[in-house]
Write a structure and sequence with these properties.
3 domains; Cobalt-precorrin-4 Transmethylase, domain 1; disordered N terminus; single chain
Length: about 325
């Protein structure tokens, strides 16, 4: 052993030779909507055989997408890329009425894997619109769920991303305004925007319950608890995953260095300098295997002691689309 190099490393970072406590958030990773979407693709492949086309990523995680591609799923950006008469699955994020119509025109066999909680938002917004309310959608422009919701609601829909946007809203009747939200946002962000909407439109109405899904709430609560226990937070999830990015933001707001990584090889050893306790969580579309790989990578740099925070047990289970498949 080169003791000189070890001493040098120790001098540069005394923590390099000390054990690293890793605390896992709970709950973390897959939610019921993601599990349902993935199982829908797998069941359809078994029942109908490949290729099965999927419009957009079934969930926002490249590891999941790659594994389903290996089994015969073909991911496309738009319906017009799919051969007429083929099987198509709509992703968990939902689609617009226009996409449904395009699928019908191509005689596609459609299976809708839209998360039931996203469908609930669609139905809520549609009910408000049919009653003559002008709809405000709180969400992020360009996100697949937002695009689907915008295309599901009859009449005008105003997208707001921040409190400042509220001040620029121009509606027909300030007494007839309703709001809905993207399901994967930060609770603190939506709360502030809803307060701004209520100040601007005192008569505004909204859903009976919070649109932020139970899994998003649970994971956000868990990372806030985790932040009080650790020096550094790693969020495992894709860069294009809204709920994973919200977890990163919450970690940063807690004052703890927080990094979003899609794969274990993105871990940077310098992040661990001076760190004694690392917290790990995962977005709702990140499989548990990625957590295990991150632990393995951490173990290459430090001796680990791994513990898990207590948390609520999620028992939600969504039924698969009726008959797995159905025609448009």
């Amino acid at each position: 052993m080169d003791t000189g190099s070890v001493q040098s490393a120790s001098q540069r970072d005394p923590s390099a030779l000390s054990p690293l406590t890793v605390i896992l958030a709970n709950p973390r990773g897959f939610c019921a909507g993601v599990e349902r979407a993935i199982e829908t693709v797998e069941r359809t492949l078994k029942q109908m055989g490949p290729p099965v086309y999927v419009r957009h990523e079934i969930v926002h995680n490249q590891r999941v997408v790659t594994e389903l591609e290996r089994k015969g799923a073909v991911f496309v950006d738009e319906v017009d890329e799919i051969p007429p008469g083929s099987v198509v699955i709509f992703s968990a994020h939902g689609v617009s009425h226009a996409v449904v119509a395009q699928a019908r025109e191509r005689a596609l066999y459609v299976i809708d894997a839209t998360c039931p909680l996203v469908s609930k938002v669609h139905k809520s917004a549609t009910r408000f619109a049919e009653k003559g309310y002008e709809i405000v959608l709180i969400g992020h422009a360009g996100h697949a769920e937002v695009e689907g919701t915008l295309g599901r609601v009859p009449g005008p829909v105003h997208l707001v991303e921040c409190e400042e946007d509220v001040q620029h809203l121009n509606v027909r009747d300030p007494q007839r305004v309703a709001y809905v939200t993207q399901t994967t946002l930060s609770m603190s962000d939506t709360r502030a925007i809803i307060k701004a909407l209520r100040r601007r439109f005192p008569s505004i109405t909204g859903p009976d319950t919070d649109d932020i899904c139970y899994a998003t709430q649970n994971r956000q609560n868990a990372i806030q608890t985790l932040a009080g226990e650790v020096d550094l937070i790693l969020v495992v999830g894709a860069n294009n995953s809204s709920n994973s990015n919200r977890l990163r933001e919450l970690g940063e707001r807690s004052g703890k260095p927080t990094y979003l990584i899609a794969e274990a090889d993105q871990l940077q050893p310098q992040w661990l300098r001076g760190v004694k306790r690392v917290g790990i969580t995962a977005g709702a579309s990140a499989p548990e295997v990625l957590i295990r790989e991150v632990l393995t990578e951490l173990g290459r740099h430090r001796r680990l002691s791994v513990t898990e925070l207590p948390g609520p047990v999620e028992t939600v289970k969504f039924a698969l689309p009726e008959g797995i498949a159905g025609k448009t």
